[in-house]
């Protein structure tokens, strides 16, 4: 048996030293941003009902905040490791963070199925994940071609895989991989930071 065309998803702890204090600072800035960002709240009301995201208003937080710039630096070694695992050949260019935005999901908020066009690697860093928070749910990229496939036994794959959300962890994936976040079932807010990297 050979494994052909694998889909690699990377997950790791960010950095254990001072991570709780770093997350607390990120959370303070995210809450202040939500208060100050009237345009983002309007955009969220139309496109992210019940929640808040700075995607439509402040999507380059790594350029606007020293704390988010520090996050970019902390992510760099993980992005390099993932890029190596994917076998990317980038001799004259490097992957650069092009976008970085925040997501706040109160109870009942859902993030529908989507991908990240015109990006190479995308990811999420979890700042606050109360017990019971939903993980990120990835779709098998072959799903639309499985028109005659029978169900599989447990542990042998399926059309969806959920990677748990845990504060202090990051998840990286290729930007073409479709994903979603199911509705948050808990009262407390799930807070994350999403980002894209590109090489062109």
Write structural notes for this entry.
With 200 residues, the chain is an alpha+beta fold. It has a single domain (12-145, 158-198), classed as Jelly Rolls. It is built from four helices and ten strands; from the N terminus they run E-H-H-E-H-H-E-E-E-E-E-E-E-E. The strands form two sheets. A six-stranded antiparallel sheet has the order 1-8-5-10-3-2. The protein is globular, with a radius of gyration of 17 Å.
Ranges where pLDDT stays below 50 over 5 or more residues in a row are: none
Note the beta-strand portion. 25-35%
Which strands sit side by side, in order, in the main sheet? 1-8-5-10-3-2
SSE arrangement, N to C: EHHEHHEEEEEEEE
For CATH, the homologous superfamily is named as q2cbj1_9rhob like domain
Which CATH architecture would you pick?
Sandwich
Radius of gyration: 17 Å
Shape, per Cα inertia axes: globular
**In total, how many domains does the architecture comprise?**
1
Mean pLDDT across all residues, rounded?
A: 94
Count of helical stretches: 4
Percent in helix: 25-40%
Total strand segments = 10
Task: Label the structural class.
Answer: alpha+beta
CATH class categorisation = Mainly Beta
Question: How many strands, which pairing sense, and closed or not: the largest β-sheet?
Answer: 6 strands, antiparallel
CATH topology: Jelly Rolls
Q: For the terminal residues, how far apart are their CA atoms?
A: 36 Å
Spell out the blueprint of helices and strands:
Layout: E1 9-13, H1 19-36, H2 38-47, E2 52-53, H3 61-64, H4 66-86, E3 96-105, E4 111-114, E5 121-128, E6 136-139, E7 160-163, E8 169-174, E9 179-181, E10 190-198
Antiparallel strand pairs: 1-8, 2-3, 3-10, 4-9, 5-8, 5-10, 6-7, 6-9
